[in-house]
């Protein structure tokens, strides 16, 4: 029988006498580092708010300008009677030398440890925060993760102590964090701002102290044209938000907090500036079959292959600036590639993923004429290398068109323009016209992507040709939901093949444009061969896709399969399906569909999975795909009940979502002093992106 | 199964409606090395009284990793936590050891009431061993 016993302080009714309580010594549990305070003799001084979190009244000129040096001071009002020494906690004095381009930031290092088994990746990210200032701070870091990441673990480390964060409804987690921050407790909060953009807040970091935050997630890898692809994004690119929006992700200069008018902001380092934040990454791949080849075009890596099936790569120490996506591609023995069912069962039931490869027969068939619409993002963020890559890809595409095809070129930034009023026949003369038009395009202005969508999808469809829309963009916008909603509404018989152009693109948007457009996605990094990527795309569309796909799951009694709407299968592009099942079955799975109007059927072996223990991540992957499916549904058919469903799935499976968050509080000790300043972690603009064309000097409202 | 119940009394003197408190969880396996445990800590009078805001690992190296929890249970301010260690017997704790710390945000108005149940304790061979779980608030620093 249970009983409740009121006590005057915490006492539990227990069967044996309490032993001595363990006394915990805080001082032994956090690293103590010297605070860096540099004075610049005779330097120009400028008092500003590197973090933007200090009250305006705290700002005061501290010296005269002399033109070449710049001195930043975070200054907080202090009680004159109790004013401590300049380098003691509470003064809030930070002096940093900028002429040597090193800007102190509270994020010191990110360490990434990833492993891949088959096509499922497991990634651990450790963010090491260090307060380099002489006053207490709250560090805020907006960072990317893959949009299909099932984030299910969060640990805050203070010295040797590790506190596991709790998944909660987002508002509740935010309230707990804010209250802990206000009362002086060390706390951390992880929120999702977009499926691929997260915000880490760490409160009450004392001067010189270090706090680590560990995040773990699972994901399925992409597979295209014979290559698996592991991607770790390192920086959020500067987004453009259409006038009037406030729910976007604003790009602002370092120290210009609050000037974008958007609910989430990313601060960017100016050209030539560098924070001390660096990154290390190690990836272990166990492909299960021989790895024939691998490539990492984005970074300098070391590698070793302990066996033909295994590969380990790591970033070289000299390539540690987190300013572009890490992309590793590897190819496995071709004949071994086949559709593969992976299952896992626990007390909640059965879960599976199936990577469904297109049947070989597709490669033997040829396509019908196409109406190819190339849509180029010519906004400011594409200026330079990205637009050059996009133009090179389209130029190659024009040359690959065949007699009988037609084409159109549309460019957009603030408005859209196009080569001609209607698509042109793919004659040598017209292709030359297209190349000339392409030559003149430049990247400048905002990204009104909606104009490009309308221009590409709204003109009458030629019933004699398949319409393919090639959308080339970096995806640096903050109104993703609006764009995906418009594609869903206007798609008709068109198919969208999106190309992400650049070193750190918005993969959530670009992937989902292809999904909503029932096409496929490709990425063209700043170091990739543009012509080759376009040739792969033409190879894909040179054969008909498998459409109207239906799956007979045999005896598995399958339910809740995602994606709910089965995509078409194209040559070289498998799709991952995930769902729940009630029982094991040896009856083969039967896949049927149509190829150029003719029926086609093939089967996939099923049966109990003897590697159950290695697939513990499948429930998380299934739940993440269900959340993504519900989120897409809420874009196309807004419904308040969907929000509740997303929240409940996320809570039941302990996952991050737009409506859940992880919070961790160390309640054993209150830090001294008042709430510290908020210091956003400023990041570099992605490699190849120009600061001057993407980060507004003035606030967006001033620009309007 | 060991069961304990208790209450955290509101602490006077602060202006906030809530406060933060840490409850240490101990398992006493007497003379037997403790290799695994599963226990349940629950707030029995609801989230308005207390909300769990973190779970910390224990004092022994064998259980220093913060234990995993059941995400479905925590929605009801109930944590089912479990941990096991594959360390050598000589590295496993004996007697009373702190296996976890629960960090809480508690109300100053509603006195939180708790229940602690030790579901199982086991040795390195997976055999159930007699043990008791207790909890105690850690004094804030």
Taking the sheet with the most strands of chain B, its summary is: 5 strands, antiparallel
Give me the secondary-structure category of chain A: alpha+beta
Helix content of chain A: 10-25%
Main sheet summary of chain A: 8 strands, mixed
Please report the distance between the alpha carbons of the first and last residues of chain B: 33 Å
Blueprint of the fold:
The complex is a heterodimer of chains A (704) and B (141).
Chain A: E1 11-13, E2 46-47, E3 71-73, E4 95-97, E5 102-103, E6 107-117, E7 120-130, E8 137-144, E9 150-158, E10 161-164, E11 166-169, H1 170-182, E12 185-194, E13 197-205, E14 210-220, E15 222-224, E16 227-232, E17 249-253, E18 264-268, E19 274-275, E20 278-286, E21 291-295, E22 301-304, E23 310-315, E24 326-332, E25 340-346, E26 349-356, E27 370-377, H2 385-400, E28 406-412, E29 416-418, E30 424-425, H3 428-439, H4 449-457, E31 466-473, H5 480-490, E32 495-501, H6 507-516, E33 521-524, H7 530-541, E34 546-552, E35 558-562, E36 575-581, E37 589-595, E38 598-604, H8 618-636, H9 640-653, E39 660-670, E40 677-680, H10 700-703
Parallel strand pairs in A: 2-3, 5-19, 6-20, 8-40, 17-18, 27-28, 27-31, 31-32, 32-33
Antiparallel strand pairs in A: 3-4, 6-7, 7-14, 8-13, 9-10, 9-14, 11-39, 12-13, 12-39, 15-16, 16-24, 20-23, 21-24, 22-23, 25-26, 26-36, 28-29, 28-30, 34-37, 35-36, 37-38
Chain B: E1 2-7, E2 18-28, E3 36-43, E4 50-56, E5 68-69, H1 71-74, E6 78-84, E7 96-107, E8 113-122, E9 132-138
Molecular structure report:
The complex is a heterodimer of chains A (704) and B (141). In chain A, the strands form nine sheets. In chain A, strands 10-9-14-7-6-20-23-22 form an eight-stranded mixed β-sheet. Chain A has 704 residues and is of the alpha+beta class. In chain A, helix 2 crosses helix 7 and helix 8 packs antiparallel against helix 9. Chain A is built from ten helices and 40 strands. In chain A, a hairpin with a 5-residue loop joins strand 22 and strand 23. Chain B has one domain: Immunoglobulin-like, CATH 2.60.40.680. Chain B is 3% helix and 50% strand. Chain B is built from one helix and nine strands, in the order βββββαββββ. The radius of gyration of chain B is 15 Å and the shape is elongated. In chain B, 49% of the residues are buried. Chains A and B meet through strand 1, strand 10, strand 11, helix 1 and helix 9 of A and strand 1, strand 2, strand 4, strand 5 and helix 1 of B.
């Amino acid at each position: 029988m249970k009983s409740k016993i009121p006590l005057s302080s915490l006492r539990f009714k227990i069967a044996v006498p309490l032993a001595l309580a363990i006394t915990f010594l805080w001082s032994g549990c956090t690293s103590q580092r010297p605070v860096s305070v540099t004075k610049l003799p005779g330097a120009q001084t400028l008092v500003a708010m590197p973090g933007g979190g200090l009250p305006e009244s705290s700002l005061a000129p501290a010296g005269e300008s002399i033109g070449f040096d710049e001195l930043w001071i975070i200054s907080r009002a202090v009680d004159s009677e109790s004013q401590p020494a300049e380098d003691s906690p509470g003064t809030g004095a930070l002096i940093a030398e900028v002429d040597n381009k090193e800007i102190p930031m509270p994020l010191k290092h990110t360490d990434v440890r990833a492993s891949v088994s088959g096509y499922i990746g497991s990634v651990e990210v450790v963010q090491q925060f260090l307060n380099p200032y002489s006053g207490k701070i709250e560090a805020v870091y907006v960072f990317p993760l893959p949009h299909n990441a099932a984030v299910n673990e969060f640990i805050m480390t203070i010295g040797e102590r590790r506190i596991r964060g709790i998944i909660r409804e987002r508002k509740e987690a935010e309230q707990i964090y804010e209250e802990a921050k206000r009362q002086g407790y060390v706390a951390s909060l992880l929120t999702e701002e977009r499926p691929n953009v997260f915000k880490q807040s760490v409160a009450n970091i004392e001067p010189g102290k270090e706090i680590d935050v560990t995040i773990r997630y699972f994901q399925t890898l992409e597979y295209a044209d014979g290559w698996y692809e592991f991607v770790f994004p390192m920086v959020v690119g500067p987004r453009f938000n259409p006038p009037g929006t406030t729910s976007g992700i604003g790009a602002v200069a370092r120290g210009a907090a609050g000037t974008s008018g958007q609910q989430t902001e990313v601060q960017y380092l100016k050209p030539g500036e560098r924070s001390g934040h660096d990154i290390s990454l190690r990836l272990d791949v166990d492909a299960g079959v021989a790895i024939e080849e691998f490539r990492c075009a984005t970074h300098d890596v070391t590698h070793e292959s302990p066996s033909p099936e295994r590969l380990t790569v790591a970033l070289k120490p000299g390539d540690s600036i987190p300013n572009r996506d890490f992309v590793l591609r590897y190819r496995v023995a071709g004949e071994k590639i086949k559709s593969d069912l992976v299952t896992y069962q626990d007390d909640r039931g059965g879960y599976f993923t199936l990577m469904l490869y297109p049947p070989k027969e597709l490669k033997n068939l040829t396509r019908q004429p196409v109406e190819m619409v190339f849509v180029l993002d010519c906004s400011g963020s594409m200026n330079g290398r990205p637009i050059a890559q996009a133009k090179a890809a389209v130029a190659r595409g024009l040359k690959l068109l065949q007699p009988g095809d037609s084409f159109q070129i549309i460019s957009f930034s603030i408005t859209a323009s196009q080569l001609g009023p209607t698509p042109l026949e793919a004659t040598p003369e017209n292709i030359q016209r297209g190349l000339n038009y392409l030559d003149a395009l430049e990247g400048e202005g905002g990204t009104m992507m909606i104009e490009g969508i309308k221009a590409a999808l709204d003109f009458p469809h030629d019933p004699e040709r398949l319409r393919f829309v090639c959308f080339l963009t970096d995806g640096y916008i903050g109104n993703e939901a609006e764009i995906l909603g418009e594609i869903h509404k206007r798609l008709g018989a068109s198919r969208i093949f999106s190309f992400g152009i650049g070193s750190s693109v918005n993969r959530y948007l670009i992937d989902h444009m292809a999904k909503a457009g029932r096409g496929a996605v490709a990425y063209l990094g700043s170091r990739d061969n543009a012509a080759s990527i376009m040739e792969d795309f033409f190879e894909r569309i040179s054969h008909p896709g498998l459409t109207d796909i239906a799956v007979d799951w045999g005896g598995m009694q399958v339910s809740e399969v995602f994606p709910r709407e089965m995509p078409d299968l194209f040559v070289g592009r498998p799709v991952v399906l995930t769902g729940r099942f009630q029982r094991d079955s040896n009856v083969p799975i039967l896949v049927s569909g149509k190829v150029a109007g003719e029926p086609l059927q093939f089967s996939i072996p099923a049966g109990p999975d003897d590697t159950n223990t290695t697939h513990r991540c499948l429930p998380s992957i299934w739940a993440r795909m269900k959340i993504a499916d519900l989120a897409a549904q809420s874009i196309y058919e807004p419904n308040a009940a969907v929000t509740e469903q997303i929240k409940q799935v996320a809570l039941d499976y302990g996952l991050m979502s737009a409506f859940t968050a992880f919070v961790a509080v160390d309640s054993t000790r209150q830090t001294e002093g008042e709430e510290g300043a908020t210091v956003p972690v400023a990041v570099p603009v992605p490699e190849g992106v120009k600061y001057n064309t993407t980060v507004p000097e003035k606030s967006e409202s001033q620009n309007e | 199964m060991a069961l304990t119940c208790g209450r955290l009394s509101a602490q006077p003197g602060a202006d906030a409606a809530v406060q933060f408190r840490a409850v240490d969880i101990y398992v006493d396996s007497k003379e037997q090395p403790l290799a695994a445990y599963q226990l349940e800590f629950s707030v029995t009078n609801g989230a308005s009284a207390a909300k769990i805001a973190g779970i910390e690992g224990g004092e022994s190296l064998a259980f220093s990793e913060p234990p995993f929890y059941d995400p479905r249970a925590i929605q009801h301010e109930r944590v089912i936590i479990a941990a096991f260690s594959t360390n050598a017997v000589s590295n496993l704790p004996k007697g009373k050891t702190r296996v976890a710390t629960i960090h809480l945000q508690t109300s100053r108005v509603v006195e939180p009431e708790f229940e602690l149940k030790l579901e199982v304790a086991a040795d390195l061979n997976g055999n159930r061993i007699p043990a008791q779980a207790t909890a105690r608030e850690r004094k804030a620093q």
